[in-house]
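Posting for a labmate who doesn't have an account.
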Amino acid sequence: MSFSGELKLEKSFFSEKPEEILEIDSFKIASFIYESGVYGLKIQNGRGFITVLPYMGQMVWDVVFGDRNIAMNTTFLQPVQTDFFLHTYGAFLVHCGALKMGCPGPEDSHPLHGELPCAEYRNVKIIIGEDNKGRFLGVSGIFEYNIAFGAHYLATPLVKIYEDSTLIDISMSIENLSNYQMELMYMAHLNLRPVVNGRIVQSLGWTAKDVAVRDSIPSHVSVPKGYREFIDRLKEEPGITKVIRSEDIYRPEVVFFLGKPDADSEGFAHFMQVHPDGSADYVSYKPEELDHASRWFCINEDKQALGLVLPATADAEGYTAEKKKGNIKIVEGKKSASFNVTAGYLDKAETGEKEKYISGITG
């Protein structure tokens, strides 16, 4: 018997009390509504669970494996119904773009990270399937952007959780519904929870060219004493950040632009935050598909976040700056572009094997 099918979701399936709507072997899905009014889906396998916001941005809010939540820790204890990215800042994954992305500069008028973060999705469905990684449950939906005399596109994300796996696959497809060219910017904004004395292991070097600190400061942040001096030091010594130390100043944030990482024989780059207990948080993607990436630290008493690697089609400096650099992609009329990322948790044994594998890639 094939493991396949679809279940179209209706908002009537959701209530304040969690309701189990599907159970297949070790998989379970429960629907619920947060006190804030945001709709949620808890998708569980034998190793843990993820929480997806099916109608708001198709964000992945929580990822819990290895008895810990690997998503960023913030003052947002639950998602908030909003169309402004910073008003609900606590998700593990946020899709960013698709027409414009990044921190808007003085010449920009677009919202922070574009229209996708809090986009309202419809035709939400559960996908039951099997691929070369095994059996999975997925969540998908569509967001249609259409503006007169402007762009017309369809965004179709998909997040998959596999049977007996602590890694999830995340994809986004952007289809240009117009007959004309469309500009495209996209970022998979992945937010891990940093740990003191955590080690960053990556298929990328540690020179100032590989890991280049951003020295411009966005208009929405203010900086403490010693911050600028720390940034100046990171310009010369980015390898300081190989280990996350409590004495380093990651407040309000530190951002790096990453060079092109080494990839394995299948085209994948690999990044880990190795915890002191030997387990790790993990991200993998294809640099040929997402040819830019950033790293984001934000560590203070209110929130702790590590964007270990944020794969993207451009840097996060906003539309105008990226346009000047030639980093805006083009999707031809009636064509589409797709992006894929794998992320999650590795236990101690898996981490040891992966670290050796990464060492083999980098030589």
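Reply:
Got it, the structure tokens are right above this. Residues 290 and 313 are 5 Å apart (CA to CA).
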